Fold:
Amino acid sequence: MCVLVHSNKSLSDDLLMLHFENPKRSGGGDVKCIRRGDASSDVIIEFSDRKGAYKTISLNYKNVHRLLYAVYYFRENLSS
Structure:
């Protein structure tokens, strides 16, 4: 299951992985894949299981290293 992360600034893939794979910080879990969206501040993150994605969505707005981001449900799976 995928989520769309929209931030006020571009975040590195490494920072995103560290943040979204930490359930205490983001509610997430194992990240399967990361892809940049149309806007430089949009990132699509695919989680290995739905539980991490749903928990991340339920938290919605958070801060990571003083950057505000919002999380939305994203229908498409990135990997096949």
